[in-house]
Amino acid sequence: MTTASRSRSRVRTGSRRSPTDAALIVRRLTTHRDGWAPLVRFDPKQRWYTLLETAADHQAWLLTWLPGQSTDLHDHGGSAGAFTVVAGVLTEWAAGFGRCGPSRPETAETHAGGRVRSFGPAHVHRIGNTGTTPAVSIHVYTPALEFMRRYVVDPRAGLVEVGREQAGVDW
Q: Is the preceding peptide bond at 44 cis, omega within 30 degrees of 0?
């Protein structure tokens, strides 16, 4: 994540919910629009985000994306999660590469209309707004994020870690 809008406490106890549980939290948050809609902001320089909720077993984030804004290829530091797009359209490119080399090509999937996408702790992907209108999404991670690893794809070696961002330090 690249821009923090506010600082809120982070709790990491090691407790974990399933990706299905994360999806249920995402659905709960999306139904309470008055809790997150007033927080929506857009930054023309980079995608914007804020922490919505922190509990012993999860974290929820609100992200906004102007056209052309995206993430690098990354994981969630061993956390499982789920997300949904509550406004606009986002594209997710899931890495089909294992740490020991290519296993299948990268796949692209469009997300819109409140469909929830859940994933396990080993999921590696990138997300971007390739459309022409702003997008807003809600993301839940379980347990709370401690770090995220950044990757590039090497044709021979598969995923190669090129960086690590620490929660509370880099975002």
A: no
Quote the pTM value: 0.85
Structure tokens at 43: 């930054």
Distance CA 168, CA 7 (A): 8
Specify whether domain 22-166 bears CATH 2.60.120.10.
Answer: yes
Alpha helix (H) ranges present in 5-164?
19-31, 33-36
Q: How far apart are CA 74 and CA 164, in angstroms?
A: 9
Q: Write out pLDDT tens, residues 60-81.
A: 999 999 999 999 999 999 999 9
What is the Cα–Cα distance from 148 to 75, expressed in whole angstroms?
A: 6
In contact, 91 and 110? CB cutoff 8 Å: yes
